[in-house]
Design a protein that fits this description.
Pfam families: FeThRed_B
Radius of gyration: 17 Å
Order of helices and strands: HHEHHHEHEEEEHEHEE
CATH architecture of the largest domain: Alpha-Beta Complex
Shape: globular
Helix content: 40-55%
GO molecular function: oxidoreductase activity, acting on iron-sulfur proteins as donors
Strand content: 15-25%
Strand order of the largest sheet: 3-4-7-9-8
CATH topology of the largest domain: Ferredoxin Thioredoxin Reductase
Largest sheet: 5 strands, mixed
Number of strands: 9
Number of helices: 8
Number of domains: 2
InterPro entries: FTR_bsu, FTR_bsu_sf, TusA-like_sf
Structural class: alpha+beta
CATH class of the largest domain: Alpha Beta
């Protein structure tokens, strides 16, 4: 699949999400700005990047019933998932280390334009890794770990988003955890895509039918 077509699909998904979640995007703007004001933080100044985060928050809320951080999938563990609800428990630590929270929604008040761009590039580099594709199967295992959260980066749902832009027709995804398989199914439902999974030995094989 050519890079141009993958990018066009990505933009189509962005504008589709914007239309679908316009009301939630406006609602998110209010609590995001209020939180930043109370905490003495700034909000990402780049409109398209910020809107994308709001779309992902809306998608996560629809999938999981709570606005899980745009950077991660739900774990199925209620305690951990509560910590991942945006603004997440980990945000203060990330801002102290990097100047922004992990997804770059919030940042220090004194961040420059160049510093915002640097952090966005850092996250895009983390998440836009080459997919491990063999034939029509994407293997989501053995990716880097965010050691502060002990979570995959990118997780299987983010790899699915990339795969949907790159692959045509039916394809499979190998995941380690059943919760990840369930999350993929939920995301596909949002996009009106058929998907199912089955356990095979110590892995779960998810079949996506575009």
């Amino acid at each position: 699949m050519g890079k141009l077509i993958a990018n066009l699909r990505m933009y189509k998904d962005f504008f589709g999400g914007y239309i679908k979640y316009r009301k939630k995007i406006n609602q998110a703007s209010r609590w995001i700005n209020k939180y930043a004001e109370v905490k003495g933080l700034s909000v990402n100044p780049h409109k398209m990047y910020l809107t994308n985060l709001k779309i992902w928050l809306a998608e996560n809320e629809e999938m999981y019933g709570q606005r899980i951080c745009p950077c991660f999938e739900a774990t199925g563990d209620k305690k951990i998932d509560r910590q991942l609800v945006c603004p997440c428990t980990y945000a203060a630590h990330d801002i102290e280390i990097h100047g922004t929270c992990h997804c770059n929604l919030f940042g220090r008040k004194d961040l420059t334009e160049e510093q915002w761009k640097e952090q966005e590039l850092r996250i895009m580099k983390e998440y836009r890794i080459p997919l491990k594709i063999e034939g029509k199967t994407v293997d989501t295992r053995n990716v880097p770990i965010d050691h502060y959260r002990n979570m995959d980066v990118p997780d299987p749902v983010h790899q699915l988003k990339q795969a949907l832009n790159q692959l045509d027709g039916t394809f499979n995804m190998i995941v380690e955890r059943e919760q990840s398989a369930k999350n993929i199914i939920q995301y596909c439902k949002l996009k009106n895509i058929k998907a199912s999974y089955q356990q095979k030995n110590d892995i779960y094989l998810v079949t996506i039918q575009k």
